[in-house]
Structure formats: structure tokens, C-alpha cells
Amino acid sequence: MKVLGLGTAAMDIVLQCESLPREDGFAFVHYESLFPGGSCANVLVALARMGVDTSLVAKIGDDKYGEAFREDIVRSGVCARYLFTRPGGITLHTFVTLAPNGARAIFCHLGDSLLDLAEDEVVPQMLQGVKVFYTDMFPGRPALKLARLSRELGVRVVFNLECAPSFMQLCRVTMAKIEEMISLCDLLCMSREGLFELTGVEDPQVAGQTLYQRYRPTEGIVSTCGTQGAIWWLGDKTSIFAPAFNIQAIDTTGAGDAFIAGLIYAYFCQEMGRQRALEFANACGAIKCTQLGARFKASLEEVNSFLTRNNQ
């Protein structure tokens, strides 16, 4: 089983505080650390930990953040053959303020490398032997090119609309491009923020059904709703729900990425039923919340043990 991902590659500077500062306020930083991140990279690293053959398509700078990212992605077992470097470039990096209860705020320095990946740098050979193409559309044009090629080659497409469309447009990903990607994908994954912005409906159940009726992706739409669990819409009036696990969260950064990795592994790689796949994905997300940093650090055995302990 091989999964190819195109999307964000980043380093996260995590600042652990006693609480998040209010507007015009301040907070003491008790601990500062550097962690590898980037949503797409997080998904692929988690899949690699589950034994899946993964490759990342992205562009980084040749700065200290880019060097640290490349070293980690290779060490994590993800193929870096398509990880391009922009000479003199600045790698995407974030500053994450983190409170003891897991609450966070993220400040993003986009840099000049991630969105520099060009259409002509992605080629059909990248999809050779690939079963699933995963993308968060950063950047948009190369992602669409690989999605179109995936459709032609019978490769399943999973699109994670992790950021609200208004934010993506700031990164040169227009609504027209987003809608084209939705039309090309088999499975659409979304945050509650994205659901609300696309539908104007606050109730996630109603918003999901509204969005499904509009786009009708082959494998439906999945959304994580934090402590409320996750929902998978499959038809006009058909959905599957899996409740969240009760855990003591210390860092929610990357929880959605771990969830998606678990979903891809369970549903596409292991061909589990949708209900079981959703529960497995929830377990991956929950475990990540108990770990510091954006990356999922558990083994497949630990996920299965977690499910057993929680009677699922």
C-alpha cells in the first residue's frame, strides 16, 4: 500500500505557557521547543508509523528549519524523493502557544518556499504504484494537477480542507480551485470552521448534510467536532457518528492530522467498515492529544491496545 501526499511541510516552535494571553495581555513561557510539523507531513508520518509506504511532495527552504524538517521526515520513514528545496528560501514555520489544558493559538510564518512548488515540478511518475493521493491544497495548482492525474489513473483522492476557504484564498487558493478539488476527491475531510464558512450553518449535522447535497463526493464527507466526536456523511439523510474518547489532553496540535491518518489507514488500506474506521481514527486523534508536538508518536499496537482498553 502506497500513499502520496502533497501539502504543508513545517517546523513548529512550541511555547508552553501557564495560560494563553488575553488581548493586550502577556503570559510567561515556561518551556520552548522545536518540533517538526505541517499538516500533510503529519498525516504521512503517522501512516508510516502504521507501516504504510508514504512519500511527500513539498518545497522547503535551505534554512535551519528546512534542514531540520528534511532530517526528521527521512528519520520518520517518509520518502523525501519529492521534497524540493528552494535555494535561499524560508521554510514555513509556526509559533504555537500552548496552555496546560491543551488550548492553543498558532501564528504562522508562511515563508517563501511552500507555495513556490510549481505545476511542472509534479509529474505522473509520482503516482506510480500509489493507491491514495492525499492533499491539503498547499499549494493549489500542483495539488490539482496530481488530483486530475489520480482520477485518470484510478488513484483514490482524499482532500483535507483543514483551513477555512477565506484563509486559503490568502494563500492563492481560490474558491474555484477548492470546488474543483472537491469535485475530484473521493473523500472530503473538513473542520467545523470550514463547514460553517461553506454553509453558514452552525449545527455540524445540518451543515454536513447541506454540503453533501451540494457536492456528493463518492466516499462522502467527514468532519471532526473536537470533544463531540466525528461524523461521516454518506447520503442525503445518512450519516455515521463516533463519539470522542475521554482523555486528558496536553496538546491538541496535529490531532486532526492523526485522525485523518487513522481514517486513511483503516478505510483505504485495511478496508475496515466505515463505523470501525471512524472509531479507529478517533483513537488516533485522542492518542495524539496526550502527546506533545504535532506528530503522532504511537505504534499500531498502541492504537489497538487503546481501543481494547476503551472497549471498542
UniProtKB/TrEMBL annotation:
<dbReference type="GO" id="GO:0004747">
    <property type="term" value="F:ribokinase activity"/>
</dbReference>
<comment type="similarity">
    <text>Belongs to the carbohydrate kinase PfkB family.</text>
</comment>
<dbReference type="Pfam" id="PF00294">
    <property type="entry name" value="PfkB"/>
</dbReference>
<dbReference type="InterPro" id="IPR011611">
    <property type="entry name" value="PfkB_dom"/>
</dbReference>
<dbReference type="InterPro" id="IPR002139">
    <property type="entry name" value="Ribo/fructo_kinase"/>
</dbReference>
<dbReference type="InterPro" id="IPR029056">
    <property type="entry name" value="Ribokinase-like"/>
</dbReference>
<feature type="domain" description="Carbohydrate kinase PfkB">
    <location>
        <begin position="6"/>
        <end position="296"/>
    </location>
</feature>
<protein>
    <submittedName>
        <fullName>Ribokinase</fullName>
        <ecNumber>2.7.1.15</ecNumber>
    </submittedName>
</protein>
<dbReference type="InterPro" id="IPR002173">
    <property type="entry name" value="Carboh/pur_kinase_PfkB_CS"/>
</dbReference>
<keyword id="KW-0808">Transferase</keyword>
<keyword id="KW-0418">Kinase</keyword>
